[in-house]
Amino acid sequence: MENTIQTSTTSQLDVKFQLRPGATAAEITLKPGQKITAEGGSMIAKSTAIQMTTSTQQRKSGGIMKGLKRLVSGENFFLNHYVAPAEGGKLWLGTTHIGDMELKELHGENLIIQGGSFVACTENVSIDASWQGFKNLVSKENLFWVKASGQGTVIFNSFGAIYQIQVNGEHIVDTGHIVAFEETLAFSLTKAGKSWMSSILGGEGLVCKFKGKGIVWVQSHNSSSFGSALGPKLKPR
Amino acid sequence: METTTTTEGFDFKFDCKPDYGFLTVKIPNGKKLKVEAAAMASMDTNLEMKTKFKGGFKRFLSGESIFINEFTAKNGNAEIQIAPASPGDMEHVYLNNQTIYLQNTAFVASGDEVLVETKWQGFTKGFFSGESFFLIKCSGKGDLWFNSYGGIIPIDVEGDYVVDTGHIVAFTEGLTYTINRIGGYKSLFFSGEGLVCNFKGKGRVWIQTRKITPFISWIHPFRPVKNKN
């Protein structure tokens, strides 16, 4: 009964993705003194000597009280920073949803990641949670987007399996299925069908049209659709 | 997937691991298997079922009890298929006069000679999975199967290790633990990590790659809103 282990070591980071694609966890072996930043709540386990501090990535400006308010409204984005001790150490990361993980090495380019899909990044990658490219997108999940830039490795996760689309020209992806995309791509929100009527009745609603050259990472399942399927069966809140 | 044949214990087979772990056990004639209540999916007709209620009524009210059904093979060998309540992984351990502690929903099945009991952790330690102050203590000799929400990964601890309380599935007796906060006070409230379990000693911890509580929080906004008229 062996695990499905996929080693995805980059020059920056030693990562093994275990139990892919449904129950994926990232086993990260940190070098002495190496730093990594991860989404709040994603830690499963770690070597005791790895130190952790927390910072707030504010999506709007405001002090700690406003921060608390946003915490309650689910609008905040907390990052935990881990530092390995002199002997190195191990850090295990997981996600909320059933699904897979993927990584991308950045060499100065920008990657846009759906907020809930960001898992972790190495030290020289900066994370900006105020990216507003899709600000008109309405969603029950309070969808936000994160811009990762710099030099290093970024890990992100998906709801369900994850697949890459190499766009060269034009491609349409349902907004609920976008995990991440390279910012070299231009994008616009549009309707899936010829008319708004057919787009809405067809259940596709808004889709994203990517233009140019670059990679889009797409998830096999749409978490909003899953939520909408389960929600009505639950007791009112 | 091939049937695991062991010199000790029952023959068994896992299917659909790690996402939808499902267990088939072959019970030899006259032998007994303990199974978590309601986990039986299908079985041969020559299996006789008896319900055992561990704990008593008072303990039932406090949540400190588990229902176990005992299946005995009569007039020949029999096969039983077992499906745990939540989708996820399953693991098997053969206890040879050893003790393993399980998170309170992790028990799936065990051999007859495995003693299954609930154990109060005390208020300071009762933060496992944020839902129960109890652990299930399994000791003695025989097979033990346990499950999780998400995948299961074993970690061998030598010295010490930190595990998020909600990610613990099981651990061996050789380990001691304390419940601590991680990082500073800001981290306690904002890190999303809450409290962690600090294991010390030599032994094995089984972790689960997903937790059910964040899933429940995520589904919350999708619930219908109560009509306030």
Give a written overview of the molecule.
The complex is a heterodimer of chains A (237) and B (229). With 237 residues, chain A is mainly β. In chain A, 10% of the residues lie in helices and 49% in strands. Chain A contains three helices and 17 strands. Chain A has helices at residues 64-73, 196-201, 223-230; strands at residues 5-7, 14-18, 25-30, 35-39, 43-46, 51-57, 77-83, 89-93, 101-107, 111-114, 118-122, 125-131, 145-157, 162-174, 178-182, 186-191, 206-219. In chain A, the strands form two sheets. In chain A, strands 4, 6, 7, 9, 10, 11, 12, 13, 14, 15, 16 and 17 form a twelve-stranded antiparallel beta sheet that branches. A five-stranded antiparallel beta sheet of chain A has the order 1-2-3-8-5, with no helix packed on it. The model of chain A has no long low-confidence stretch (mean pLDDT 83). Chain B has 229 residues and is mainly beta. The N and C termini of chain B lie far apart (56 Å). The relative contact order of chain B is 0.16. Chain B is built from three helices and 15 strands. In chain B, strands 3, 5, 6, 8, 9, 10, 11, 12, 13, 14 and 15 form an eleven-stranded antiparallel beta sheet that branches. A four-stranded antiparallel beta sheet of chain B has the order 1-2-7-4, with no helix packed on it. Chain B is globular. The model of chain B has no long low-confidence stretch (mean pLDDT 85). At the A-B interface, strand 5, strand 6 and helix 3 of A face strand 12, helix 2, strand 15 and helix 3 of B. Strand 5 of chain A pairs antiparallel with strand 12 of chain B.
